[in-house]
Amino acid sequence: MKKQKLLFILFFILVSIPVFSQHRAIQFTETSWAEIKAKALKEHKPIFMDAYASWCGPCKWLAANVFTNDTVADYFNSTFVNAHFDMEKGEGLELQKLYNVYVYPTLLFMDANGDLIHRGVGSMPVAEFVSLGKRAVDPGNNLASYNKRFAAGSRDADFMYSYLDLNRYDDVFCKKVTGDYFSKISIDDLLQRPNWLIIREFVNDVESREFKYLVKNQEVFAGKYGKDTVTQKIKETYLAGFKKLIKEKPFNREAYDGLKLKVTNSGYSQPQEIIALADISYYKKIKSWDKYAQAAGEYFSFDNKNTGLLNDVAWTIFENVEDKGIVAQAIGWAKRAVELSPVAGIMDTYANLLYKSGNKAEAIKVESQAIETAKTAGEPFDELEATLKSMKEK
Predict the structure, then answer these.
(1) Which of 4, 45, 64, 352 is the most buried (most CB within 10 A)?
(2) DSSP secondary structure letters along 186-232
(3) Please, which residues have CB within 8 angstroms of residue 264's CB and are 6 or more apart in sequence?
């Protein structure tokens, strides 16, 4: 009996370890920015700042899953004075401008005077987050050291790629730096791998010399760096050009049609795919729903595996369109999205469209399945239950 009891106690201890082992967290100093800097000066430590927004999902994930990890807590609490500010409230409003915070979460590292030494962007797993913190205090490898090297005249391609990568959050900065860099590079050198990497990651202007050269020589680039990669880069850059034009006020129809012509004559294998995708955004903006559906149908004839877009288009039509023919098209796209990704949110889109079309029985069936799927996945399902109740009552 004693042996059995000992084994039971040992088993209990072992199975309890994963549940209770992670009990430390980053200790954030809850005070003003001036007092945080004063504390850092007194303790001779750099500062880590979590620059977040209250609505930001990745911010919440990072706080719940990474900041509460023992390894993270031990390193950050011993190395930094830790701070966190909502960039849309109180002092955060000024800090957002001071440190050019454009996306959330932004992870800032400063010296005790508040001068930026390093930064990261986005949520990331524990190991990557700890590595970010260690790089921040590495005087030969952090952003501050790269700024010094750049100011001193370093311009070799490998350095430039790494420097731009550290600043990829700032489109304006990257555009200026790449423009200055490439203005001093021979056009024949653009095919070299380090320069291709810079083009691939940081050139997004359809009117730039580098992009025009890429389009003109896309088969050569494809032979060296892979057709799919080159094709995707060309597609993304043209779409960035369309996005910029769509945002402009007033809308420049001539420029928009001119870019369509450039895409058509670019040598890209499926120019209509790019044009249709751009038109989906444009017609959504101006609420021309018949043309929106037409553009969506054309795009999905090229790519019917884009689950997110299938669902987004279907839901947009559910919210805005009464035309039975267009709703029927959207039902087909929503059904395809469910086939590709049978998650609760996508099933809910499909159910709502079915209900809108008059197929109440099938809508109730699919919405019920969505609720069960959400329960199984541990996701909230209150809104789904409210929708199902509404379907049954009407």
Answers:
(1) 352
(2) -GGGGGSHHHHHHHHHH---TTSHHHHHHHHTHHHHHHHH-HHHHHH
(3) 271, 275
CA–CA dist 151, 174 (Å, integer): 15
Are 264 and 271 within 8 A, CB to CB? yes
pLDDT at 169: 83
Q: Which amino acid is at 103?
A: V
Distance CA(174)–CA(348), nearest Å, equals 40
Q: Residues in the chain, how many?
A: 394
Q: Residue 86, SS3?
A: strand
Q: What contacts 146, CB < 8 A, 6 or more positions away? A: 159, 162, 163, 166
Beta bridge partners of 49: 83, 108
pTM score, whole prediction = 0.79
Amino acid (1-letter code) at residue 341? S
Q: CA 271 → CA 11, 231, 259, 377, distances in Å?
A: 63, 11, 11, 40
pLDDT tens per residue, range 118-173: 999 999 999 999 999 999 999 999 999 999 999 999 999 999 999 999 998 888 89
Residue 123: phi and psi, rounded to 5, are -80, 155
CB 83 within 8 A of CB 50: yes
Please tell me the distance from the alpha carbon of residue 352 to that of residue 345, in angstroms, as a whole number: 11
Cβ neighbours of residue 213 closer than 8 Å, sequence gap 6 or more: 187, 190
> Do 82 and 43 form a contact (C-beta atoms < 8 A)?
no
* Residue 252 region by backbone torsions, left for phi larger than 0, else alpha for psi between -120 and 50, else beta: beta
- State which H helix or E strand residue 9 sits in: helix 2-20
**Which H or E run contains 262?**
helix 253-264
CA distance 235 to 290: 25
Distance CA 34, CA 50 (A): 16
Helix (H, G, I), strand (E, B) or coil at 50: strand
Matching residue, tokens 């359809």: 206
Question: Cβ distance 142 to 136 under 8 Å?
Answer: yes
Helix axes 171-182, 157-166, angle to 10 degrees: 170
3-state secondary structure of 282: helix
Strand partners, 64: none
390 is written with which tokens?
């509404």
